[in-house]
Amino acid sequence: MDTMRDRFAPVVSRLLDEDPRVAVVLAAIGTDGFAGATRRHPDRVVDVGIREQLLIGAAAGLALTGLRPVVHTFASFLVERPFEQVKLDLGHQEAGAVLVSAAASFDWPAGGYTHMAPGDVALLDTLDGWTVHVPGHPDEAETLLRHAVAAGDDKVYVRLSVQANGQALPVDGERFRTVREGRSGVVVAVGPMLDAVLAATEGLDVTVLYATTVRPFDGAALRRATEAGGTDVVLVEPYLAGTSTAAANDALSDVPHRLLGLGVGRRELRRYGRLEEHVAAHGLDARSLRERIAGFLGAAVRV
């Protein structure tokens, strides 16, 4: 199976051909994928070099002229390094753009901590008005990329990962999807966490919701799920643990409930290792998730 990032350049290249508003801004990373598009649209494919602050500033400038910029690099260089520009050049000026990241939380362990960004979504949560898509499969990534570019002049973040579920599900860029129904708790699986969550909850009497658009947070879907499936809620996110707990608590603010946020831990892992080892070290493999979910929900979850 190809990766989400494998889909990125072909999809956006087609959008460049289809829509004269679309522009692409790169920072030396991912340029090979746009070689053909650059020849066809040299005025709308811009490589600023290894200058991530300029990457965001240039995108904001293009947006202010009426274009729809799609901006791409590793998550740590797209959200964390140029955060002041994301906050001011885009947010303060109310300039829309589509930020498309790669490497997710720790997709490339050999790159070291400089190329890891488990806090990217939490950081964007300090700003107003961002839509955040977290696809779990390359097909979903393609759909959500098109949604993002078509979203008027909104500010959208699309978080791509080499981690992926085995099968794509229909996504609409808005709502959570009910994958499994139960009566003793609700587990929300975000993006590429779905397969591990389904394996971890096999035989447990829980509802599983699938979230590929996490901002805005679909509080209505969570409320409906808790009405039938119980008010113990577990969030399983592929980035910093607890990132969405505030949003979930807000959705259930008038309902007595318990909430557990699982995700990437704050402790820095200082050995490169392999991707799978990082997943396990953060307790996001199916076996670890089963222990943590069953332990939180208690014996009542067993069918």
Biggest pleated sheet: 7 strands, mixed
What is the CATH class designation of the largest domain?
A: Alpha Beta
Strand content: 15-25%
Low-confidence stretches: none
Topology, pairings included?
Elements: H1 4-18, E1 22-26, H2 35-40, E2 45-47, H3 52-64, E3 68-74, H4 75-80, H5 83-92, E4 97-102, H6 120-124, E5 130-133, H7 138-149, E6 155-159, E7 177-180, E8 186-190, H8 194-200, E9 207-211, E10 213-215, H9 219-229, E11 232-240, H10 245-251, E12 258-264, H11 275-281, H12 286-297
Parallel strand pairs: 1-2, 1-3, 3-4, 4-6, 5-6, 8-9, 8-11, 11-12
Antiparallel strand pairs: 5-10, 7-9
Helix pairs in contact: 1-7, 3-5, 8-12, 9-10
Subunit structure: Homodimer.
GO cellular component, one term: cytosol
EC number: 2.2.1.7
The gist of it:
The chain is built from twelve helices and twelve strands.
Structure characterization notes:
The structure is a single chain. With 303 residues, the protein is α/β, with parallel strands linked by helices. The protein folds into two domains: 4-159, Thiamin diphosphate (ThDP)-binding fold, Pyr/PP domains (Rossmann fold, 3-Layer(aba) Sandwich); 177-301, Rossmann fold. It has helices at residues 4-18, 35-40, 52-64, 75-80, 83-92, 120-124, 138-149, 194-200, 219-229, 245-251, 275-281, 286-297, and strands at residues 22-26, 45-47, 68-74, 97-102, 130-133, 155-159, 177-180, 186-190, 207-211, 213-215, 232-240, 258-264. The radius of gyration is 19 Å and the shape is globular. The protein starts with a helix and ends in a 6-residue tail after the last helix. The mean pLDDT is 96. It holds the Pfam family Transket_pyr. Belongs to the transketolase family. DXPS subfamily. Pathway: Metabolic intermediate biosynthesis; 1-deoxy-D-xylulose 5-phosphate biosynthesis; 1-deoxy-D-xylulose 5-phosphate from D-glyceraldehyde 3-phosphate and pyruvate: step 1/1. It comes from Streptomyces luteogriseus.
